[in-house]
Amino acid sequence: MSTVAEMCELGWEEGGAAWQWRRQLRAWEEEMLGECRDLLFDVVLQPTVSDVWVWRHDSDG
């Protein structure tokens, strides 16, 4: 189990090997990337738990 913070220590931080872009990000993209990192900072990754998407019919529409 790893937190996103721990993954940063393994090279997933900004400028690390895992973050490679085809072009330089625009200012608004850099801002969104920072917001994304902030949202994911406390996420705990659990490799033993299945990742599942469940689609359910919305009876309201």
Report on the structure:
The protein has 61 residues and is mainly alpha-helical. The chain has one domain (2-45). It contains two helices and two strands, in the order βααβ. Strands 1-2 form a two-stranded antiparallel sheet. This is Receptor-like kinase.
Order of helices and strands: EHHE
Mean pLDDT equals 77
What structural category do the secondary elements indicate?
mainly alpha
Strand order, biggest sheet?
1-2
Weakly predicted, low-confidence segments: none
Portion in helices: 25-40%
Shape: extended
Draw up the topology in text.
Elements: E1 2-3, H1 4-12, H2 27-40, E2 44-45
Antiparallel strand pairs: 1-2
Task: Give the key terms.
61 residues; two-stranded antiparallel ribbon; Receptor-like kinase; 2 helices; 7% strand; single chain; mainly alpha
Short description:
With 61 residues, the protein is mostly helical. It has helices spanning 4-12, 27-40, and strands at residues 2-3, 44-45.
